[in-house]
Amino acid sequence: MATTELEKQFAYLEKGCVDVIPREELASKLERSLASGRPLTVKVGFDPSAPDLHLGHTVVIRKMRHFQQLGHRVVFLIGDFTGLIGDPTGKKATRPQLTREEIEENARTYERQIFKLLDPEKTTIDFNSRWLDRLRSADWVRLAAKVTVAQMLERDDFRKRYEAQQPIALHEFLYPLAQGYDSVALECDVEMGGTDQLFNLLVGRHLMREHGLEPQVVMTVPLLEGLDGVEKMSKSLGNYVAVEDAPFEMFGKLMSVSDDLMWKYWLLLTDHTEHDIKGMRADVRAGVRHPMEVKKELASTVVGELHSPGAAEEARREFERVFSARDLPTEIPEVCLPLEGNVMLLSKLLCSAGIASSNSEARRLIQQRGVKVDGRVVDDVKAELQVSAGLRLLLQAGKRRFANVTFS
Description:
Radius of gyration: 24 Å
Low-confidence stretches: none
Number of strands: 13
Number of helices: 18
CATH topology of the largest domain: Rossmann fold
Largest sheet: 6 strands, mixed
Number of domains: 3
Strand order of the largest sheet: 1-6-5-2-3-4
CATH superfamily of the largest domain: HUPs
CATH class of the largest domain: Alpha Beta
């Protein structure tokens, strides 16, 4: 039996999703849209809590693009109001609140990064302060009356903190309300987010019903494990690939992913179908293709999309030259540091040279014997280096990060 256009669209949109609640309503909305020509309004909210997006964020952004490619209206919602509250999702303690200035600066970087995947001509960027700033005290009271404390404590992280007698600030209860009201203001047909956002998304569905609107369909995507293959991709854990990483850096990081995790990256970070991916897995199992070659293809696909095909090709050539021939990169960043004494902690030097993003990451790299100074492995986290004016050191962390450091 021939596959209908509706079935094709549904399969394309459902690819890689964990939850579609409820599936029959999404099918109904898509069917009405096809019949009427009226696009669905699809929203994803991002709180600008940090300036950099990483590949974990692009999983849901890619799903936005899928809706966009099918002609639907995509709203990239920047939570400049909710960012002032701080999303409590997954937090064991109250999250620090950002200033308006920090939020505005981070939001500007988001606008630049999302257009690596989304079509700027077909993307609506909105800010939830546009309607949340207008709510008066009485409006907040009426909104709060639509959700009970018992409902809030159904949320896993709130419940765990309550049972552990850890404090929950009242303003944290406002976050799901505010995010839910975003859907009311935009009259969303669909809202998407990571699986950790399921509670918040369902609050939006509940509030839409309470306001006499047709409730949105909720879709969640998996949380992407980072390069360590264990924890969720996170800048604070140092296991991330930033959207704006340089092509060679991005390519090299992706090549460090385990063979098992590679398939999840294929599913969530590319537009390849599940059928395509099953075919590649079968080829690897049969020995027709080597996992390394499939991983190079993955890295080339991701780098080519976020940068350019030419940049991906150059990054692949450089990677093969460096790691097959065990040569140094043709271009190593030059870093000049002011001399502040005759001795410097290696962990501090790695941070100052941009090799590590934090002291904890630097110590972890050293403990894992991943750091070389002038080609010599150093594995003492308390290691100190003798430094002097004019001294030049070659620093290396792992197989991808290099820096020539001089002191003045």
